[in-house]
Amino acid sequence: MSENPEAVVDGPTRVFVEHRELLFAIVYNILGTVADTEDVLQETWLSWTGRARRSPVEGIGNPRAYLVRIAVNHALARRAAITRRRETYVGPWLPEPLLDEPGAAERADDRALRSESVSLAMLVVLESLTPLERAVFVLNEVFGYPHTEIAQVIDRSPAAVRQLAHRAREHVHARRPLYRAHPRVRRQATEHFVEAALGGDITALMEILAPDVTVWTDGGGKAGRGAGLRPVRGRDKAARLLAGYATRRGAGLDVRYRRVNGDDSAVVFDGASPYAVMVMDLTPDGEQVSDVYIVTNPEKLAHVRRDEETGVEGFGEAAEGRRA
To answer: Which residues contact residue 106 at a Cβ distance below 8 angstroms, ignoring those fewer than 6 apart?
Structure first.
């Protein structure tokens, strides 16, 4: 049997494909990287087909629960490798941005599952949890799994799962205010921020940025990506750093406004190649930018495509005309 789940349409393959987007969403929220998520799904596929060769899958009462259990346990094993990579990573590490770029044949419910990913800012917070705490938080808080089902997935007692969920929830809520700006507010703030940053408008940036703003720039140590070795904190330093992106305008930078991890964000292209993904987090009043997450590591942008068919205007005169 082929290891490519799209190559055949037998019973096991059909069941796997039906649940693939759910598995992708769960694993991505646990790992925070697209490449590792795809690898885990491949491992899950191999485990699933291996089980199918030993006995009919029709004998499995709940294939969805079975696949989720396989995927989550593969994801927990993969966390160890990610942690080792993080130890030698150059500069700040940010999760790999997930753009809402559905293919023409992708179903609406598949798109909904992809958009179930938590925000980039939340993924940063989840990185500080233990692997088990993170898995429990994702399954319970994001996907609504009850503690009893999670206990079966991770082979722990319901009491242990409740304790893990409590610790994770307390930790996340302490670091992440329960505030989500209205999409219209986020969209307007994002466009104003990008205009100021790529326009080199220090005065405008000083108005938009909160006094204690933090800028996280993940370039992975790649030459010429303009990323620092540590986060930049404070409005003055952040404004000068961000205005530096304006020097690249003449080299053909173009901005597309897209949804990244469920939030309106900016994707910057240098010609046809992705240059940066910029995600902003707002203060509770929604009036200033509290955090800026900029991913410039080309390895983390490898899956980002410039889609000329989306109808999304680029930054510049066309965008100005749309806002007029």
So the answer is: none
